[in-house]
Amino acid sequence: MILPIINLTNQVSDEKLVSSLNLIGDIILRIPDICETTTLSKFLETFQLDNYWIFPFKDIGSQDIEQVINLLDQGAHKVVIPSFRILGDKNFSTLPANRLIAHITSHEISNIENVKELIKNLSGLVSGYLITISNDETVSKAMRSVPENFLKDFNNFVQIAQKNLLPSGGISKVGLILQSNNSYLSSSLEFIKRLSEEFSAELVVPIDQLTLDSNVNGLLNIADAFTCSLKSDRSDGLFITAVVDERGLLLGVVYSSIESIREAFKTKTGVYQSRKRGLWYKGATSGSVQELKRIQTDCDGDSLRFVVKQHGTGFCHLNTRTCFGDDSGLTALENTLQSRKLSSPTGSYTQRLFQDSNLLHSKIIEEANELCSATTKENIAWETADLFYFSLVKCVANGVSLTDVEAHLNQRAKKITRRPGNAKFEWNKSNENNEEQIPLIVTNEQPTNKIIKMQRFNLSKIDDIKRTSLLQRPIIKSSDILFKVHPIIDDVRKRGDLALIEYTLKFDKVQLTTPVISSPFSPDDMKIDDSTRQAIDQAYENIYKFHDAQYDRSTLIVETMPGVTCSRFSRPIEKVGIYVPGGTAILPSTTLMLGIPAKVAGCKEIIIASPPRKDGKVVPEVLYVAHKVGASKVVLAGGAQAIAALAYGTKTVPKVDKICGPGNQYVTAAKMAVQNDSSAMVSIDMPAGPSELLVIADNTSVPSYVASDLLSQAEHGTDSQVVLIGVSLTPEHLSNIENEIHKQASQLPRVDIVRESIPKSFILEVKDMEEAMKFSNDYAPEHLILHLDDADKWVEKVQNAGSVFVGAYSPESCGDYASGTNHTLPTYGYARMYSGVNTLTFLKHITSQKLTKEGLKNLGYTVMRLAEVEELEAHRNAVHVRIKDIEKEC
Ligand SMILES: NC(=O)c1ccc[n+]([C@@H]2O[C@H](COP(=O)([O-])OP(=O)(O)OC[C@H]3O[C@@H](n4cnc5c(N)ncnc54)[C@H](O)[C@@H]3O)[C@@H](O)[C@H]2O)c1
Ligand SMILES: N[C@H](CO)Cc1c[nH]c[nH+]1
Ligand SMILES: [Zn+2]
């Protein structure tokens, strides 16, 4: 093999030759000065080289180290530095050894004793040597007969180098530069062969002494130079050749001959040797041609690898891409997406992704988030597959191939200056000291200078499809989340407290010794300031009052017919679990909203679960409320693990009968999972989702009030849903509201959240209240605010909503905290069939009946007849045996 060298101070014009040399490996570029890179840039612009070394003519010093790093970062495979510089200047010894080649001159190896010392010192600092033999006589002799002395010394050198060079234990490259005016006659092939066979070395050959053509006097044919050190182990002299694509995937196995290799170099296409038909120009008849990217020999030089870009249907004559059948994995996916891009069925999901970049981008972000949250091997593989799929759709949509992506990876692998790799501010979770807790739905990043604005639609201008889409909430992939929470639930069920403690460490980064604290709680842990206590006490009173009033403690008694009395009475659910979210906010208000109705109902045991603070304690405000509502225990855990502990019980956590409370997707999914497990014997309040608000406003509404209400829910999370229905609003009124939204939002501490939730929210202009109420009832919002002149009048038209706020002075925040109503309400449209949490949530009703003899006489024949109809004789008989007696008595 040879190492071509190009002197950039000379004109290089033979593009074909350079690109063919690029096929076989490294090319050394001699540049005048390490700092003069204009010539180099121009050259690289013309000739896209894969692997090149930089070898400056001018000596370099410490001041050049930055430039050396620059060149390596920009793609130089290796840099050749004089050995004395590497040894004499510490800066150079800090460069990565696998990218450094030591330049050694002949006088440095003339005394073999010195060589040992030299090699020992260079050991581990470089990955190869470039040795210049500058004595003309030596060179000319070498060309002709290879002087024994020289080879002996050189042999010694290589052996010493191979023994001493670390870390690889062997040298990857020894290049030999023969500085001579002599031309490289074909006789030098013998020399090249010996160099590579005996010494694993290569002859450095100037490009002007190389040719692509055969039989050019005084020039060396590159195919010959390439093949001279190959040795076929076949009687026909052919070489087994593996043909792979640019990503290294095997397309098929063929044969090459010296002649076919020569043709491949010349045409830069896949040319092979057919044993039956001679030279085989792949694709000449089928059109499935191959662009040649690289030719490599294997470790012992008896077989080849052609790296090609395959065009057309594929490599195999059976029209598959490979001779081993169809591709799988990413390659197969790429092919499928490429064909879907050309023709996919209308309405197919992939086509939707190609056409709707917003949808595609949201999916990429969603999947990236889910991958970050994945913990088990299976989940990580699953989420990565999802992310690869959507990323590849983006690539294919924009004509980017997997090869392009891998080219970047390879390029980056060459960089030695590493970026710090920190996440951009908005993605930097490390400050929270809780890397796992990533918002579950994050949408496109919003520039901070952008107007914070809701989308606007006019009901008279949209069609039914659009109206229906406005009524919908984002799809929750509950199956994916369930897939993640099931292993957590099973684990807590099996290993109890131990698992609970482990998951709290994993997800909340808190090491606990016990997962539960029991009442009486320590006063020190409940210490809060006076104004907070007063506010909590006031809220407690109002909420208590309203929820107490909901409790009808009387027994319902009805005599349905003479002697037949039916009654109904309520009983508290004995043990209830209350989940108080704690991932991103502290929520004493939620503790009030769940604890008070449970207390009013008279539940015997109230157990609160909430993720602990970083110090392993419960937020004092939450503990204060826990104490006020009479909770017996607080479980220091969140997420699916807390729900599992409440559902199945552990050594320290009592099993409960019902679990109530909002939470993130893990909490909701876990609640649904345990409810569906009949062996858990546990019920839940309702499925929960992101907070929602729908405001109906007319021209009497105050723009700043309307905007403040919308923002109060929009600040909950990036997935909050807020809707404004404007009833025949004037354009000025509407723009006043929009201006207020932007103004107020810009001043909020949680402006980053609002920047995401507000642009996803919308204003719907309608002509009258009938249209407004119809839309609102169809939407079934969690909260409904009526900012109307005659707001009271419209309450009776409300059919579906979690809680209603009537008139300009009823902000939704009052219901969230302290007016008395409950803030745990149905979201996602569930207001159509669910009520919010109330006192009844913690009660069950038992009915009873009492029949006198007279009553049974009056009812007995009806029951017996119906039992006959159902052919349930025992039922009939239970009445019959009594009726018989009664009739006997009469
Ligand atoms: N509707 C309501 O009445 C109401 C009231 C208050 C809060 N909320 C909602 O409740 C939610 C609270 O969510 P939150 O995250 O702040 O707190 P959270 O307590 O619901 O969730 C935190 C827990 O999630 C678990 N978790 C986090 N990352 C995980 C992962 N990768 N895998 C498995 N588990 C993981 C952890 O165990 C952590 O303790 C918000 O969506 C908020 O809007 C609703
Ligand atoms: N609005 C939320 C329910 O959708 C509850 C809440 C708690 N704190 C403030 N708000
Ligand atoms: Zn709220």
UniProtKB/TrEMBL annotation:
Gene Ontology cellular component terms for the protein in this record: cytosol
CDD domains per the UniProt record, alphabetical: Histidinol_dh (cd06572), NTP-PPase_His4 (cd11546)
Pfam families: Histidinol_dh, PRA-CH, PRA-PH
Protein name: Histidine biosynthesis trifunctional protein
InterPro entries in UniProt: Ald_DH/histidinol_DH, HisE, Histidine_synth_trifunct, Histidinol_DH_CS, Hstdl_DH, PRib-ATP_PPHydrolase-like, PRib_AMP_CycHydrolase_dom, PRib_AMP_CycHydrolase_sf
Membership in a protein family: In the C-terminal section; belongs to the histidinol dehydrogenase family.
One GO BP: L-histidine biosynthetic process
Cofactors required: Zn(2+)
Record pathway: Amino-acid biosynthesis; L-histidine biosynthesis; L-histidine from 5-phospho-alpha-D-ribose 1-diphosphate: step 3/9; Amino-acid biosynthesis; L-histidine biosynthesis; L-histidine from 5-phospho-alpha-D-ribose 1-diphosphate: step 2/9; Amino-acid biosynthesis; L-histidine biosynthesis; L-histidine from 5-phospho-alpha-D-ribose 1-diphosphate: step 9/9
Record bears the keyword Amino-acid biosynthesis: yes
EC nos: 3.5.4.19, 3.6.1.31, 1.1.1.23
Alphabetical UniProt keywords: Amino-acid biosynthesis, ATP-binding, Histidine biosynthesis, Hydrolase, Metal-binding, Multifunctional enzyme, NAD, Nucleotide-binding, Oxidoreductase, Zinc
Top-level taxon of the source organism: Eukaryota
Domain Phosphoribosyl-AMP cyclohydrolase intervals: 253-324
Protein's UniProt keywords contain Zinc: yes
Catalyzed reactions per annotation: 1-(5-phospho-beta-D-ribosyl)-ATP + H2O = 1-(5-phospho-beta-D-ribosyl)-5'-AMP + diphosphate + H(+); L-histidinol + 2 NAD(+) + H2O = L-histidine + 2 NADH + 3 H(+); 1-(5-phospho-beta-D-ribosyl)-5'-AMP + H2O = 1-(5-phospho-beta-D-ribosyl)-5-[(5-phospho-beta-D-ribosylamino)methylideneamino]imidazole-4-carboxamide
